[in-house]
């Protein structure tokens, strides 16, 4: 099986054919995420509602067929290449800097730009610990990097254990150089998640803005650390 996405074709190795169904689901999720980023009203957030904003960034939301999707926008003080190397090549290090993430493991590398990760977080506000199994896909278009995340079930996926397994209906990111400073990156992160469990969606939706602002702050602190390490080498 080969995967053609945004004019890039990748071949799934024969020994990983058991993941073909999961890859197809992940590709579908990428298309859905990409279409939201490409929507004519997206840049102006036409049809979106502002959920939260502070000096770090902003969070907007809108309804889609899966439920409510949230999108955070912010700037980090590190260049795009360094940021994406960390984002794509080193997800296992996320618990070192993101207090919401307790563990993150890459279950399988399917191609250079497609993998499956398993990660979990501890309690956040009134939401108890959750874990996620996500198909990640990455593409670059005209210097802009897009990543997607979509919950999948695949061979070798761990059982949920003592956490509730949440479902990522739609997720992804858009990363681009800041037009006024090549050493900075504009980041937009999108999430539509069914956290499952006993907490009503309305309650979770009411705090998602605050949760994502906290994530923004931690991403910005981490980016400064990445820049410092880069400059010291």
TrEMBL record:
Recorded GO cellular component terms are:
endoplasmic reticulum membrane; endoplasmic reticulum-endosome membrane contact site; late endosome membrane; lysosomal membrane
Q: Tell me, what is an example of a GO biological process annotation in this record?
A: vesicle tethering to endoplasmic reticulum
In this chain the START domain maps to: 47-228
Q: Which Pfam families match?
A: START
Superkingdom of the organism of origin = Eukaryota
Query: Which SUPFAM superfamilies would you find in this protein's record?
Result: Bet v1-like
Q: Which SMART domains match?
A: START (SM00234)
GO MF term list: lipid binding
Q: What is this protein called?
A: START domain-containing protein
- Organism of origin is Bursaphelenchus okinawaensis
């Amino acid at each position: 099986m080969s995967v053609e996405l945004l004019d890039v074709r990748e071949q799934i190795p024969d020994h990983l054919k058991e993941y073909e169904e999961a890859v197809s689901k992940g590709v579908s999720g990428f298309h859905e995420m990409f279409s939201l980023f490409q929507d004519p009203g997206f840049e102006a957030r036409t049809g979106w509602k502002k959920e939260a904003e502070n000096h770090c960034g902003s969070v907007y939301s809108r309804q889609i067929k899966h439920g409510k999707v949230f999108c955070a926008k912010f700037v980090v003080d590190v260049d795009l290449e360094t940021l994406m190397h960390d984002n794509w090549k080193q997800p296992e290090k996320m618990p070192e800097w993101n207090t919401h993430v307790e563990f993150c493991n890459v279950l399988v590398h399917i191609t250079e730009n497609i993998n499956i990760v398993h990660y979990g977080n501890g309690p956040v506000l009134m939401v108890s610990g959750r874990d996620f199994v996500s198909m990640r896909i990455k593409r670059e278009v005209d210097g802009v990097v897009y990543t997607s995340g979509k919950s999948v079930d695949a061979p070798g996926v761990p059982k949920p254990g003592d956490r509730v397994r949440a479902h990522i209906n739609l997720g992804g990111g858009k990363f681009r150089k800041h037009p006024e400073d090549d050493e900075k990156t504009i980041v937009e992160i999108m999430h539509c998640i069914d956290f499952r469990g006993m907490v009503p969606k309305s309650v979770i939706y009411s705090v998602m803005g605050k949760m994502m602002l906290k994530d923004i702050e931690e991403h910005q602190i981490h980016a400064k650390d990445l820049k410092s390490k880069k400059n010291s080498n």
